[in-house]
Amino acid sequence: MKRQQLTQRLLDWYDRNRRQLPWRQDSDPYRVWVSEIMLQQTRVDAVIPYFNKFMQRFPRLQDLAAAPEEEVLSYWQGLGYYSRVRNLQQGVREVVASYGGQVPDSPQDVRKLPGVGDYTAGAILSIAHNKPEPAVDGNVLRVISRLQRIEEPVEQSRTRKQIEQIVRDMMEQTERYGDFTQALMELGALVCTPRSPRCGACPWQADCIAVRDQVQAELPKKKAAEPPRQVQVHTGILVADQRVLAVQRPKTGLLAGMWQFPSVEVLLPEQQLSEAELASALRQRFQQLGQTVLLRCEWQRLNHVFSHRQWDLRAFLCDADAVDFSHRPDARWLTGAELKTLNWAGPYRKLADRVQTELLES
Length: 362
What we know:
2 domains, Endonuclease III, domain 1, elongated, alpha+beta
């Protein structure tokens, strides 16, 4: 089958089956950019309410650029991967400063923006600016690897470049570049799904080599995923005068800039501390804050899995007189009501809720 016919069949299918999604109401580059960043690692139905709320508060690129980071993070709370929104805000600030508030339409300029890789650049350029630039995400890798029966792991750079070229060749058969990008993503999301693909509903069924050879379930090929690394986390819950002590994580690294309770993290198996050593390290963490504490007892235990880390978090109740932290921006005494105002890191949101209901007066 000629690629021109494949392209046209896909576009015809898209015209009949496309979902009505809030970021498809127009091709505004800013809205496209926000949606694509939100959709990374997150399902469409989960993104929709976040996108609507986010765009209501930050309807223009300039609104997001001018907003305090803490407020922006609060509108992202629950989506995770907070570096995404930090890079997004840094990127829109650069657009305001360097491009007069207009998202650039050249591949070189778009790829210079913070947090914008090849995929996001391709999505912005094709969907918002109707440029023939491929946007290859997991859906596209799956669809094309099945269509062409590509057996090499899709994480490999060589395989991704091969698939990008196939997509580029197909895009050249139309001038509806943005629609083609969205159609290919939509096909992967609705029909060519990871499990139990609906091949009978696919416009490319007759030309799909995986269907012909009955190997859809075996593609795409992926490298074996490494299990998440185990991390021991000891956390101190210090309540004094009906307030609890919270601290801010560093501005870089995992969960950068988010809030938590004073903690120590030990990555296994590189580090292996005994219970006594972990307790000592936690007391030292408090001492770094100028607060001497007595660890009283274990209060809560939580297990939290990130994409590459698995935390075994143990929270200990502590005793001490409160030290004044008004001079430090990274440490705060919080009332129960104030606990809800912070952007908590990972499992600390659940821990903060329990502190509020079980340890502080309502």
